[in-house]
Design goal:
The chain is built from 3 helices and 2 strands; from the N terminus they run ααββα. The chain is an alpha+beta fold and 59 residues long.
């Protein structure tokens, strides 16, 4: 997310600077999770057997 979309998301959800930086960094597997009124910065890792499908090496 970058540019105008990031600015709109920041205004709509009232994102902090840290949350905005996380979304603009576009690092694969990192996300901002909204649960009710809570926000959690998390990292999702693929299992070894899933990596081939995520990188285009699957069947």
């Amino acid at each position: 997310m970058d540019g105008k979309n990031l600015q709109q998301a920041k205004e709509l959800w009232g994102l902090t600077t840290e949350e905005t930086n996380l979304l603009s960094s576009k690092i694969k597997g990192q996300c901002l999770l909204f649960i009710g009124s809570s926000r959690i910065l998390c990292r999702i890792k693929a299992q070894r057997w899933e990596k081939t499908f995520l990188t285009g090496g699957g069947r």
